[in-house]
C-alpha cells in the first residue's frame, strides 16, 4: 500500500510540475526568448494562425514586440490576407511600421484591390505615402475605374497630384465619359487644368454635344476659354441653333470682353 501511495504521490508531483510549467509560460527558466513565445502562441491560436509559423521572440499585449511579425500576421489574418504575403518586420497598430507594405496591403484588401499590385513601401493613414500609387488605386477603385489605367505616382486627397491624370479620369468617369478619350495630364476640380480639354468635354457632354467636336484646349466655366468654339457651341445649342452653322472661333458676350 505504501508503495502505491508513494507512486501516486510522485505521479501527482510530476503532473503538478507540468501544469505549473504550462501556466507560467516557462517562467522558471532564465531564457528570455521562451517567456514571450507563450503569449504569442496564445494570441496566434486565438486568431486562427498556425503555431509553427511564428518565428523569433514576440510579446503580445505587453506594448513591445521584439519581433513584429506576429502583429503583422494577426492583422493580416483579421483582414483576410494570406500569411505568406508578409515580408520583413511590420508592426501595425503600434504607430510605427518598419515595413509599411502590410498597412498598404490591409488597406488595399479592404478596398477590394489585388494584393500583388502594390509596389514599394506605402504608409496609409499616416499622412505620408512614399509610394502614392496605392492612394490613387484605392480612389480609382472606389470610383469604378480600372486599376491598370493608372500611370505614375498620384496622391489623391492630399491637395497635390504629381500626375493629374487620375483626377481627370475620376471626373470623366463621374460625368459618363470614356476613359480612353483623355489625353495628357488634366486636373479637374483643383482650380488648375494644364490640359483644359477635359473640362471642355465634361461641359460639352453635360450640354448634349458630341465629344468628337472639341478641338484644341478649351476651359468652360472657369471664366477663360483658350478655344472659344466650345463656348459658342454650348450657347448655340442652348439657344436652339444648329451646331453646324458656327464658323471660326466665336465667343458669346458672357465669355468675351471687348
Automatic annotation (TrEMBL):
<protein>
    <submittedName>
        <fullName>Uncharacterized protein</fullName>
    </submittedName>
</protein>
